[in-house]
Design goal:
heterodimer; A: alpha/beta; Rossmann fold; four-stranded antiparallel beta sheet; 10 strands; 23% strand; B: 279 residues; mainly alpha; 72% helix; globular; transport (chain A); ABC transporter ATP-binding protein (chain A); ATP binding (chain A)
Amino acid sequence: MTERIIPQQPAIRADGLTKRFPTPDGPDVTAVDAITFAVPRGSVTGLLGGNGAGKTTTISMLLGLLLPTAGTVEVLGVDMARRRHAVLPRMNFSSPYVELPHRLTVRENLTVYAHLYGLTCVKKRVQELAEHLDLSRFLDRPSGGLSAGQKTRVALAKALLNDPELLLLDEPTASLDPDTADWIRTYLERYRLRTGATILLASHNMLEVERLCDGVLMMRQGRIVDRGAPSALLARYGRQTLEEVFLDIARASDDRIPTGEAADAAE
Amino acid sequence: MPPNEMAIPRNDFSLRRVGAMVLRYWYLLRGSWPRILELAYWPTMQMILWGYINQFMASSSGGGSGWVAQGAGVLVSAVLLWDVLFRGQLGVSISFLEEMWSRNLGHLFVSPLRPGEWVTALMTMSLLRTLIGVLPAAALAIPFFGYSVFALGLPLAAFFANLIVLGWSLGLLIVALILRYGMGAEGLAWIVVFMLAPVSVVYYPVSVLPTWLQPVSLALPSAHVFEGMRALVFDGTLRWDHLAWAVGLNMVYMAGGVAVFLYAFHQARVRGALLQTGE
């Protein structure tokens, strides 16, 4: 079975994406509220917002781990509701909150996932990634015994096993020291330059976003309240840093939150 | 344009991904000798205990001419076959729980792994764990009690297959309950199978049960297996009717187990449980 790929097709297209969770005693909680966006191929896009803004829920729906209440998601031209298994080999994901099995060694974990992604020359690929990500010394140590920085590098190695065209990263440098975090960012920049991959990353680190991202989606209370290039957002809000823009949005009263249409218009 | 831009390959059921998951559980098992020892420990202790009970009941001091005396090793066969059912269920449940304990489901199900492949891997591991657990006990029964369960011949394979398949169905049901109710339902993995023990007629014939309970018992494939095993041990006859019932009921139970698992898996995706569930 083949599928024609239209070159200008975005890597991700979400249309009216909504997630409501039922609660035992009250009305449903709307975690993501009819968001519509597209992530261009080859771009690095930041998904920003405070805690509970809906970032992780959105990423989970993009991955197909969570089924939307309404709306559609297309990833690399494939409808995730109907044919997610056709596109999963071409994407990958990393999050500090989803761990790899602790009792398996790094080599064993990477070997298992390399087979799951159908790689040939598994040993060579694991060795290659271990060298790229400076993991060679830890390959035969249990994953659970590594430091936070080492675990992040292992998670990144797992996420890069299949040379993904689309990489979804949930807080890729959370709880890392500045040196390790910088190392990860540099690696991601090089990976993108080398492969032309698309990266969507959720982050609370505004410096990271300014450095890595071509575009930003600002979320609050399940909605995209603003979007654009970091420089455009700085100009629009009259601020010097993205952190100030973030605080303006996070602290704005509810009636000042733009609707989805307003955010689209702003773009 | 890279080659994978040209076409999206089909991703049907993949034995390689099944193998990858079996490898994952095998790595875990081989990395811990206490785990391997634990697999064989309980079936061996059970076999020794019931072997001596069998010997005592078959001897003159234990009642001599009683029911047990007429069938050499009937209780040893029963305990070993019961362990196939128990280990079969536990093998599926424990491998699943390993993913819950390590919070690994999120990674697994953003990979190309399909639920059917995962379930096949869980069943394969259950088979391996059962063989590791039961084979040493069965072998030890030969020098200990001069009784070989392998003397049951080919029907033993049919009994084994029916019991492990029932174990898998129960295992899938427990997986579904844990997916639905979270780790609070973890304890079910160790206790559910024992609810079936009295009506599975492991150590006594179905006629011992009260009349109203007998249809419940005969609705279980395990009851037909143990009735069939006793017919073979006591009379040397293979009861095809019991075997047919066991196979037919197992097909129904397996279909039910798979359906309940798939529904629970779908609901877990609706609720976001694949990403959040863990210790």
